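# nightly structure sweep
# worker-07 picked up a monomer target from the shared queue
# config: single-sequence mode, recycle default, output format = structure tokens
# input follows
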Amino acid sequence: MSKAGVLPPSTAPPPIPMSPPPNEQSPISPSAPSRSRKSRRSIQSSVEQLVIGNINFAIEMYQEILKDKKGSGNIFFSPISIAAVLSLLYGGARNETEKEMAKVMGIEGIDQKRLHLAWKDLLNTLEESSSDYTIRLANRLYSNKGFNYKRDYMDLVNHCYQADLAQIDFKKYPEQSRFVINAWAEWETGRKIKGLIPAGAISKETILVLVDAIYFKGNWEEQFDMKKTRRGEFTIRTGKKKKEEKATIQVDYMNRTGIYKAGYDYKVEVRVIEIPYLKNIQSMVIILPTQYDSLDKVEEKLTTEYLDAIPQLLVESRINLRLPKFSMGRSVKLQDRLADMGVKDLFDKEKADLSGVTGSREMHVSNMFHKAYIDVNERGAEPTSTLSNYGAEEFDCDHPFFFYIKDNRTGAILFMGRLERPLNFA
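# output follows
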């Protein structure tokens, strides 16, 4: 077994080389024989199953976060990023811990080798280099100093997830460790994700910390004209007992008239619009309740089947779109959310079985942190001629709505959230 590098208690996030020793090939390694056509089809089938599981996982996680926030406030997270770091750890999970994780992630029935190769294909597609968009995933496992990682697990993590395994002296430097981890996450996400781990979250008893941060930057297929951005009122609930009580806040609205896919769902009482990013590689889908105070009713209806049916609602229409500018960088402490979803043993030092990571059952996850960042503004492709708004249907996002960003090549949900207050950027 080979020991991972030990991070010094500094703010610099140095890379940690994790290459396996020469002449010791893992079953899943860059030098393994090329896949057969049959194997290729099997991996593709596994990718499709991953995506289906991703949508189920996204909705369940959304409901758990919503419950934690008592049904109010902004929400923003990346289900694909959380699932990726969980799957990375799943590679070392055994017995009941493995079963719990598979059930929650919706990957029951996929053997470990096919699963991780499917993740490799999916992540390569999502993160492929492009001038049209940027997706930066920063996933890393930090264990307490003294743990030895198994060589085959190190190979798996590097080859299929391009992630890092690191060691740090939590016992001696708990608070300094937090600075090191936060600095690394900030560096990896182009300084967009800051303060991932809050003060006091790491203690001398910390054993293993999972770090998961993601940053997305995409330009609209048709950009909004900055000259048409105007201040306007956004209606919010006051949070008081009487639902009819409301208030308004002033926000910046982007305005554009163009051809968009849009539609109505009269049963759920929502309007839906799909706004494509450059080259239609990704899209933002907005589900806007017809009433300012009925977002909770929409959220009660959210299921995998409902999201699958969204495209059937949409037709190309001339739309006069009014969308608030907003930025969100939300932090989520995941262990309680995942435990409520059914992943319990992973965080229990008596029950956790991560023997595939170190060869022993001494390790459990102490903390798991996730943060995602989004900036919604006018930027897009080069300005194009816009349509007259005469006869265009109004789509005014002037009250709370649910939204998600999907990858149109794979169907994976990259981000999911709710915008209740555009001015709340925390």
